[in-house]
Each structure stands twice: as structure tokens, then as C-alpha cells.
Amino acid sequence: MQMLSYSFILRAFIVGILVSLCAALLGVSLVLKQYSMIGDGLSHVSYGALSIALACGIAPLTLSIPVVIIAAFFLLRMTENGMMKSDAAIAAMSASALAVGVTVTSLTTGMTTDVCSYMFGSILAMSREDVVLSVVLSIVVLSLFVFCYHSIFAVTFDENFARATGVRVSFYNTMIAILTAVTIVLGMQMMGAMLISSLVIFPALTSMRIWKSFRSVVISSGMLAVICFCIGMIVSYQFSTPAGASVVLVNLCAFVIFFLAQKVKERI
User: Fold this and answer.
1) Mean pLDDT, to the nearest integer, of 159-178?
2) Most confident of 55-64, 74-83, 186-195, 226-235
């Protein structure tokens, strides 16, 4: 309980739990649709936008959120229209955005503490204003996911069938991409551009080792994401390790445990 007496850790817990939950729920659809690397690509786009924002003296989240949403929209359009395969489009956008960010940083502020915190994550990077914005946007993401759950389920498993039954497939694909973009930007301050994609991938992959139905995987992913984040924060506080890296390692341990449990279950 002592760690919760520090205001910056309490802010990190509030934002981290909400962002982890958003990332885990969206991650189930992204992994099943083979878009699991979109988180990594969008995080690099966010880093490029953050570098430009810092160089111009603009509030980072004010610029990065709309830029990443636009990038997610165009990324989806390129893959839907057959202009480029999803993995190639993500790789091209990721490398380009990272190159822009590094170039802008080197020509202006240099690798300052602010830039490094967005690259590798820092729980000290969040101000009260960032927390309020993150909480509001996280609640919006969770509300939209719950409200559109059945349509997201249909689009995830069979787009052709969903389109035949009247579901607006393009609209819901775009919505998933936009919600993912918002979640990535919100989580970058704590996890960093290099690690944020783990919040999207690990909970879903871990849950799929044991559970088979979509609903079970979604519920399990959400619970795992919150538990692993809390344990990772406690480990970070106790051993003075980076918060983002600690959360990822806890998620990795959970994946190994579930993987071994799956093998035992198969043998039995």
C-alpha cells in the first residue's frame, strides 16, 4: 500500500489499468484478423508525431492522437483496396514514421528525457491533464467496444457473412482501427513506443491457449491484462525496474504458464 501513497504511481495505476483493458479487448479481434502488428506500426507513427510536437512546442497528445487515427485509417484503406498486404503496409509505415521521428529529434531537441520517455516509457511522464484525457478516452473506447460487441464479433470471424447479413463491415473495421490508434497513443507514455504493442498481443495470445470461444477469450484477456499490469507495477516498484518492461515480462510469464497448462490439458 505504500506505493499508492505516491501520486504519480496512483496516476499510473489508473491509466494503466484502463489502457491495458482497452488494448486487451481490441487485441483479440486484431490477433484473429492477423492485424496483431498494427499496434507496433501505430506506436512508431505516434513516436514520429510526438517528436514533431515536442519540436514545435505543442502538447504531445493533442497532435499525436489525430495523426495516429489518420494513419490507422489510411493503413486500413491500403490493405482493403489491395494496394499492399497488411504486413508490408505496417512495416513501411512503421519504418517511415520512426525515421521521421529520429530525424526531427536530431535536428531540434536531441534525445532529451521527454523523447526517451515516449520511446521506452516512464510513469513519471503523465501529468494530471494527461490522466484526465486518458480516462475519458479509455471509457469511450470501452463503451464503444461493449456497445458494438456483436458486430465486432461478426466482422472478426467472417466478413463476407457479416456483409451479407447487413453489417457495415468497412465501418466497423475502421472503428476498430481508430480505437486501437487511440489506445496505442494513451499507453505510449507509460509503456513506450517499443513495448506498447505487447499490451495488444500478449493477453489475447495467452487466453487462446486455454479458451476457445470468442466471449471467453475476451473476458480472460481483459482480466489477464489488468492482473499482469498490476503485478508488473508492483515488481517495478519493489526492484526499481522500468515499469513498461516489467509489465511485458509478467505478461510473458503468464503466456508461458498458460502454454504449459494447454499442453497438460491436451495430454489429459
Assistant:
1) 88
2) 226-235
CA distances from 238 to 11, 14, 135, 196, 215 (A): 18, 19, 26, 22, 35
Q: ∠ at Cα 236 (98, 217), nearest 5°?
A: 75
> Tell me, what amino acid is at 259?
F
Cell output for 10: 496512483
Q: What's the grid cell of residue 121?
A: 516509457
HSE of 104 in the Cβ direction (CA atoms, 13 Å)?
A: 18
How many whole angstroms separate alpha carbon 27 and alpha carbon 30? Answer: 5
Arithmetic mean of pLDDT, 59-82: 80
Grid cell at residue 120: 521506452
Q: What is the tens place of the pLDDT at every residue in 202-231?
A: 999 999 998 989 999 999 999 999 999 999
Read off the pLDDT of each residue in 165-176 and give the average, rounded to a whole number. Answer: 88
Give CA separation, 185 vs 1, 9, 67, 89, 258, in Å. Answer: 29, 19, 10, 19, 29
Cα 51 from Cα 58, distance rounded (Å)? 10
Per the confidence metrics, is the pTM higher than 0.85? yes
Tell me the three cell numbers of residue 193. Answer: 513506443
CB contact at 8 A, 42 and 71: yes
Place of cell 510469464: 253
Residues contacting residue 115 through CB under 8 Å, at least 6 positions apart: 50, 51, 54, 105, 109
| 13-46 residues labelled b (16+ CB within 10 A) or e (exposed) | bebbbbbbbbbbbbbbbbbbbebbbbbbbbbbbb
The mean-pLDDT minimum among 55-59, 83-87, 134-138, 242-246 falls in 83-87
